[in-house]
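Chain X:
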Amino acid sequence: MTAPLSRTDTLDLIGNTPLVLLKGPSAAAGCEIWGKCEFANPGASVKDRAALWIVRDAEARGTLKPGGTIVEGTAGNTGIGLALVANALGYKTVIVMPETQSREKMDTLRALGAELVLVPAAPFSNPGHFVHTSRRLAEETAGAVWANQFDNIANRKAHIESTAPEIWEQLGGRIDGFTCAAGTGGTIAGVGLGLKAFDEKVRIALTDPHGAALFNYYACGELRAEGSSVAEGIGQGRITANLEGAPIDTQFRISDEEGLEWVARLLRDEGLCLGLSSGINVAGAVALGRQLVAEGRRDARVATILCDTGFRYLSSLYNAEWLKSKGLPVFPWLT
């Protein structure tokens, strides 16, 4: 058995996450479905990658000075990644987050030493939206930089330079499709661009939750949202700078119920405790796999992102009363 690689810097722990064959989704799709285990990052989510690249980019441009402050508006996971990176490099963090996000994310940010600013949930057009609030705070804070994950393309660069090459190498250069949901758009755009650089024929699919506008944008050219979702950190109503030029070949819309079904099955049958965004991604991967199989590609390989750990949602997704309050099915073992 090969011993794990040793690292000389804690920030080197970000990335190089395992890729695992998901048995239940593979059986459902009729082809191989692989999950990139981003919950294995130090901050337990895919957002660690964007956090590291954004901070390194700010340092390289000279906008982030020693002892400075990083300010960001986030659904939580990017803030957690930024707080860890900032701690390792001697910076302070101020994180603005909608008060509707999970209690576990709030508690984690406080535990990491970040200054947490909670604001009411609001549409992007509202000046009180968490992104706009974080920008203003950065402008008002001496020595601060605004991470701006939605429109800072250092975000998608992280996935062009790390996530995509890792997937390509882990699958031995044989991959037919990739899909995930979009929040900032950095992951799907970056992995899509990175994989297309290896093989233009890799099919890149957007997996969109209800309540987001991108499905209709890529399907018919119109930013139009339908329905709603309780998933945190995904769903977008505009074309961010990270999404500009994203090589989206096809798109799927996935309901919370379908995503929750895969969350339940992956925990019950495969021992993976994941968040709803991961369940939605897996449902999209199954849909993409079935599409490829229907075209005669029975040996197809599809990869997706297992975004974060389910332990971040114990008070919501894994809480029977919370699920009932949202009109969602309760996992049988919680009843």
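Chain Y:
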Amino acid sequence: MSSPLTPAQLAVLREQGFVVARAFLPAARRDALRALATAQLEQAAAPVEYEADLAYPGAPASRQAEGGGTVRRLLDAYARDPLFAAWATDPAVAASLQRYFGQPAVLSRAHHNCVMTKHPRFGSLTGWHRDIRYWSFDREDLVSTWLALGPETAHNGGLWLVPGSHVMDLPAERFDAAQFLREDLPENAALIASAVTPELEPGDVLFFHCRTLHAAGRNQSDQVKFSVVHTYHAADTRPIPGTRSASKPEAALPEAALPLG
């Protein structure tokens, strides 16, 4: 059974904007999720997002080009299978986030809520950004979980993150029109140079804040990388009506009978 984040881990999350919980998900559940994700990827079971549709650097030029059928994300994980729903609302995740927010947590089904895949050759890279760039909530305090279903390193496209960037006030001109950090600016280059890439083992979970700057490179291995990603907010945080953030019903997490820390 998984254990919630400790007070020390919560302190790291608040201070640097992310924390890794090692061996958070037991092997049997992790392996069952990986087998399910692999089967659904082989079927391209809808709904899915294709690399070619995003046109990020390194993606196929179109659906008709070589690699055009490469899936980037299996969407709406919560509704895909009870195994995914059980992970999204896991009691240890719920308790961890209740301690972080100081109140019960809610799963957003409109953002992340997916199995993120990264393929050799046709998996694209993702530029430096904050997830909150395209989210619309009345408070910018959301936390995502990134469950590694296999090893993740810089070699196979693991995440890079800038410690402490969730509390940095960065002016708009340091970002481009799509709100990716401009890598041509010297001040941004210095910021990027401070980034780290936590190496994850299967079953590890990265908790990270929605304002933490992060990026991911290409998968240079010969194996598809699988990660399950969900996003949560406090019960009194609300998506703004009429926006994408309010486009799907949310799911309340079970309240934890634990002291808040």
